[in-house]
Amino acid sequence: MALTDEAIVKIKGMITSGELGPGDRLPKEADLAARLGLSRNSLREAVKALTLVNVLDVRHGDGTYVTSLDSAHLLDALSFMVDLHQDDSVLQFFEVRRLLEPGVAALAATRISKEQLADLRLLTSDLTASAPVDELVANDLRFHRGIAEASGNSVVCSLLDGISGATQRARIWRGVTQAGAVERTLAEHTAILDAIEIGDADAARAWMTAHIAGVENWLRKAR
Q1: Which of 30, 59, 65, 208 would bridge 102 by S-S if both were Cys, CB 3.0 to 4.6 A apart?
Q2: CA torsion angle 124 130 133 136 (round to 10)
Q3: Short-list 79, 70, 80, 217, CA closest to 159
Q4: How many other C-beta atoms are found inside a 10 Å radius of the C-beta of residue 187?
Q5: Which one is predicted more confidently, 74 or 177?
């Protein structure tokens, strides 16, 4: 593993130095191994590892390329990691959401466009208290994604996309078992959006904190 790690570090160095950029093709395996002072086997294992985290793209019959390196593509690996976690870690993901999303809502209050605001208003009006739980959860996911997009920070969007999958089952569970969950969610979404619409970052932060903390606290008691 030490030799493979060395190979990974050297390839990473070629990218961070600018020698290799997004979309560039790596030199042929034999040439690159000789140039880096590595065995071809170590280089091959390093390429496999970097492919798994979307840094490299192996195109059979063509060569190995550096990916676009955009945040959404690189953070796909986070979604894979989240999928491997069991339900006993879901509270940790809610804690991460509680740390991130209030700040995201505050940013959205200063950056949201009229079109984004209108789309989010449609989401809050599309749902009624009698809606089935699966519609509530789908609407909730789109609402939080829309606020992340309104923050203008693509890295945050990708992070929250990766984390949301881990909390989706808990959201469904709450919707099925807790009386008034749909009404409460709709009321909190409306309050968050009202604060964002008037540009009140502090209120948007506070309402988002309360919104996520409410689900988190319910889950702690329900477990």
Answers
A1: 208
A2: 0
A3: 79
A4: 14
A5: 74
How many CA atoms lie within 13 Å of 174's alpha carbon, on the beta-carbon side? 23
Distance CA 115, CA 18 (A): 38
DSSP code at position 27: P
From the list 167, 166, 153, the residue with the least C-alpha distance to 110 is 153
Calpha distance 201→54 (Å, rounded): 35
Which amino acid is residue 28, in one-letter code?
K
Q: How would you class 202 by CB atoms within 10 Å of its CB: exposed for 0-12, middle for 13-18, buried for 19 or more?
A: exposed
Only one residue has tokens 């605001």, namely 117
N- to C-terminal Cα separation, the chain: 40
Q: How far is CA 163 from the centre of its chain?
A: 5
Phi/psi of residue 118, each to 5°? -65, -40
pLDDT 10s digits, 174-222: 554 566 777 888 889 999 999 999 999 999 999 999 998 887 887 777 6
pTM of the entire predicted model:
0.66
Q: How far apart are CA 14 and CA 129, in angstroms?
A: 55
